[in-house]
Amino acid sequence: MAKEPEYITVNIDTPRKYDWSTGKYLGKTYAEAKENKKLVANKCPKCKKLMFWPTIVCAKCKVETGWEWEELPDTGTVMQYTYLVFPLWDPHYGERWANPYPSGMILLDNGVYQRYWLEETDPEKLKEGMRVQAVWKEDYDERGIGMQDILYYRTIEE
Ligand SMILES: [Zn+2]
Fold first, then answer.
1. Under CATH, which number does the domain 73-158 receive?
2. How many angstroms does the Cα of residue 49 sit away from the middle of ligand 1?
3. How many A from CA of 112 to the centre of ligand 1?
4. Cβ–Cβ < 8 Å for 40, 54
5. Which stretches within the chain are classed as H helix?
6. What's the confidence (pLDDT) of residue 79?
7. Computed over its alpha carbons, how large is the radius of gyration of the chain?
8. Separation of CA 111 from chain center
């Protein structure tokens, strides 16, 4: 029989307060999420592709993307999903942990793909092609971390 691993706990009391810049492109995305509950992408002036996450250079055209922005729709269609029903080891804290939400590949209504959590946890109701809408954190002080200001995508009937 395998021996159970032993773990040690290291308590660190030193506060780790710091500020760091996200840069103007990513900073705009974070600010729009926090202030307006919107996800925004910037657009390549040459191929017109939307960049999400925004970038300063289009990877395809190798040109500077500039400052043309477009709001991403908060609705989309689930193209694929993964539902992990057993816990894994949390690499940061060494505890067993299971995310309660399935992870969905969502095609937003403007053609941008996004991988994010789905609220629906009933395997009988999870379907490719289901329509979903973003549910944002309501508390202003809890927002400010970009796309994770969205709690999950909720199934909608249309
Ligand atoms: Zn381009």
1. 2.40.50
2. 6
3. 15
4. yes
5. 23-36
6. 98
7. 19
8. 16
Residues with CB in 5 Å of ion ligand 1: 44, 46-47, 58, 60-61
Q: What are phi and psi of 12, to 5 degrees?
A: -115, 115
Distance 43 CA to ligand 1 centre (A): 8
CA angle (98, 99, 100) in 5-degree steps: 105
Domain boundaries, the chain: 21-72, 73-158
Contact 82, 49 (CB under 8 A): no
44: pLDDT strictly greater than 90: yes
**pTM for the model:** 0.80
* CA 29 to centroid of ligand 1, rounded, Å: 19
Ligand 1 centroid from CA 46, angstroms: 5
Q: How far does the centroid of ligand 1 lie from the alpha carbon of residue 57, in Å?
A: 8
